[in-house]
């Protein structure tokens, strides 16, 4: 019941943003578009603050790093190769985009900012400030702003073709298969449903860390946060190393981030032709991620 309430709140927030967007003044719209790229960093600071407070009560919190790295790596690579195998006999053509050193450096800067935000949240915790704050409400504001942005996104019917929809489908299948492999390695520490749930974040670290903490525990919330943060990093590396040759596979590995963080890299490394793949894949996986996480956490197997 708790998971249903949380998911309902997420969809209410994104729906409100979408349907209220046309009624907003031009000044407010510009303000939303201006702050949206930075809002995730504010959310990361608050998430790190809450998680650090909670992890202080957990024995051996450093133990969450190895499983997070393992799950992040296998789900990214798994999505990449499932998509690659799927398209191998369907479409051998690829658009060879140019790799920009400038854009790559900007991507590294964004990753550094994410880690800086996490560090800031941890520092605030160490300062012994008595702050009562719930990141969940900040996340709902963030999702509302995403809904506003979606209202001004131009969609086309061709974006719903089966070739486009296979990209997020491959991300789901690849993540599930990777989760099964991870369970064989981590079965002494995690249940299968927990591993499956951790594989469904698709790089959306600002959402998954909070959702896991609310639905399960701070320990799993910390693993989810690091898993999806590292998953985004692995996706960026795959995008620049192999995106020019296997564009759909690189987009699949990017998961939910292909709609926002890695979209610029899709244009540069894969080619403009693949932007619809990135937008639709990111949108579908962003909508599915909280549902799938909640579903798997409530299953017992």
Please give a structural write-up:
The protein is an all-alpha fold. 74% of the residues lie in helices and 0% in strands. It has 12 helices and no strands. The longest helix has 30 residues, at 26-55. It is globular, with a radius of gyration of 19 Å. The two termini are 19 Å apart. The model has no long low-confidence stretch (mean pLDDT 83).
Helix-strand pattern, N to C? HHHHHHHHHHHH
Radius of gyration: 19 Å
Number of DSSP strands?
0
- What's the helix count? 12
* First-residue to last-residue Cα separation: 19 Å
How much of the polypeptide forms β-strand, as a percent range?
A: under 5%
Please identify the structural class as seen in this structure.
mainly alpha
Shape: globular
Tell me the major beta sheet: none
Question: Which descriptors apply to this entry?
Answer:
globular; 0% strand; 12 helices; 301 residues; mainly alpha
How do the strands and helices of this protein lay out in sequence?
Blueprint: H1 2-20, H2 26-55, H3 65-87, H4 101-126, H5 135-151, H6 162-186, H7 192-198, H8 205-215, H9 218-242, H10 247-254, H11 263-270, H12 275-298
Helix pairs in contact: 1-5, 1-12, 2-4, 2-5, 2-8, 2-9, 3-6, 3-9, 3-10, 4-9, 6-7, 6-10, 6-12, 7-12, 8-9, 8-12, 9-10, 9-11, 10-12
């Amino acid at each position: 019941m708790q998971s249903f309430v949380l998911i309902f709140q997420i969809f209410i927030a994104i729906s409100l943003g979408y349907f209220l967007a046309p009624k907003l003044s031009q000044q407010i719209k510009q303000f939303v578009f201006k702050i949206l790229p930075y809002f995730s960093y504010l959310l990361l600071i608050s998430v790190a603050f809450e998680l650090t407070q909670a992890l202080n009560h957990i024995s051996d919190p450093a133990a969450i790093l190895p499983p997070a790295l393992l799950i992040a790596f296998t789900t990214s690579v798994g999505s990449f190769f499932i998509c690659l195998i799927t398209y191998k006999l369907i479409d051998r053509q690829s658009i060879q985009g140019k790799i920009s050193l400038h854009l790559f450096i900007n991507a590294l800067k964004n990753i550094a900012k994410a880690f800086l935000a996490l560090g800031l949240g941890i520092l605030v915790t160490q300062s012994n400030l008595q702050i009562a704050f719930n990141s969940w409400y900040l996340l709902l504001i963030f999702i509302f702003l995403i809904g506003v942005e979606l209202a001004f996104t131009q969609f086309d019917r061709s974006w719903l073709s089966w070739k486009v929809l296979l990209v997020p489908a491959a991300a789901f299948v690849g993540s599930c298969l990777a989760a099964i492999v991870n369970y064989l390695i981590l079965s002494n520490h995690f249940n299968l449903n927990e591993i499956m749930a951790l594989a469904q974040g698709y790089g959306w670290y600002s959402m998954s860390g909070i959702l896991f903490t609310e639905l399960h525990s701070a320990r799993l919330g910390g693993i989810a946060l690091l898993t999806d943060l590292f998953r985004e990093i692995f996706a960026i590396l795959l995008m620049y190393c192999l995106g020019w040759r296997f564009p759909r596979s690189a987009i699949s590995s990017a998961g939910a981030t292909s709609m926002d963080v890695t979209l610029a890299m899709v244009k540069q490394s894969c080619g403009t032709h693949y932007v619809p793949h990135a937008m639709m894949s990111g949108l579908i996986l962003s909508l599915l991620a909280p549902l799938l996480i909640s579903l798997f956490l409530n299953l017992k197997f």
